[in-house]
Amino acid sequence: MNRIYLDHAATTPIHPQVKDTMRKVMEESFGNPSSIHHYGRESRKRLDEARVTMAKSINANYESIIFTSGGTEANNLAIFGLAYANRDKGNHIITTQIEHHAVMHPCEQLEQEGFEVTYLPVDENGVVDIMDVKKALRKDTIFATIMFVNNETGMKQPIQMIGNLLRSRDIPFHTDAVQAYGVEEIDVEELKIDLMTASSHKIYGPKGVGFLYKREGFNIAQRVFGGEQERTWRSGTENTLAIEGFKTAVDVLKKQRLSRVKHYEQLSESLISALDYKKVDYQVNGSLDTDARVPNILNLSFPGMDVEIFLTNLDLSGVAVSSGSACTAGSIDPSHVLKAMYGENSPKLRNSIRFSFGMDNTVEEMEQVADRIELIINRLSSNV
């Protein structure tokens, strides 16, 4: 059976060049980057070069990159760090109802500690209204955290407008850009982003490493205590092996981003065309407008289907997809993202599938996926 992996928003395979780099690092550079001897200096050099690469990829300064164990830690460092560092200025935080749990849960924890959080609604396309952001601002608002691209629908948020608004009010702006980094061109200066989260394993790098961009001059409270690593923002010996792999993934990305985006567009269009040709009953969650969403994520609702049964049958047919966030895989809880878009009683909460494309997927595979979807729907429908 030809297995087809369409869950790249959950994680990507490691790029061959990344594997080669990591093998070389394991053999040649094992030193602790905090050590002053030759072996330590060799690792420090690699770490510094990686930090420069990350900074240049988003038009930031070298000193603004803080390496973390991934997107979740980076989000936690930004959110708790900003909250605790600014609690003397206020206790109000702005976020949205569609954030990843790595943002949602820290905000909920801060509510238990006495902070007030405004969860902004979204429209039926899953997009925040800039006027709602403006209306939510208060004198005691200490920061806003609003994702760049939604991980379930692929819909982009109006980051440029939000950044301009918050900068004019001198309010720090953090964005979870885990699903945007690698697909969107990101310039933190142009977009007025003050803190930004990115993760390696979404761009064909290794798991367990990411970074938090923090604009110079913004103070955040330290969350991990120990040594002086990462200029004390994040203590602990740096994972130089994973960081070097992350750097290579970014180096490859610089050369391939535009071609990858074009390929993702072709895959998305091919799957939609194939489903239309077969007259499969589906609805798009969000928008097909290429300016409104990233092309590598496509969320579809299949009326009359049950998501758990549908996912199981797709897996048995060799198609790996998801019902939403990878961090809630296996959960029967309805998607909080789709609930925010359509309401808690919408059948879309129980019949929606996320397809997320990768650089190795082919148009032929999209046609095969459509064939298998048609067969599954016909079989399940006949059993009702």
Automatic annotation (TrEMBL):
Its EC number is 2.8.1.7. The keyword Iron-sulfur applies. Keywords: Iron, Iron-sulfur, Metal-binding, Pyridoxal phosphate, Transferase. Pfam families: Aminotran_5. It comes from the Bacteria. It catalyses: (sulfur carrier)-H + L-cysteine = (sulfur carrier)-SH + L-alanine. InterPro entries: Aminotrans_V_dom, Aminotrans_V_PyrdxlP_BS, Cysteine_dSase, PyrdxlP-dep_Trfase, PyrdxlP-dep_Trfase_major, PyrdxlP-dep_Trfase_small. NCBIfam families: PRK02948.1. This is cysteine desulfurase. The lineage of its organism: Bacteria, Bacillati, Bacillota, Bacilli, Bacillales.
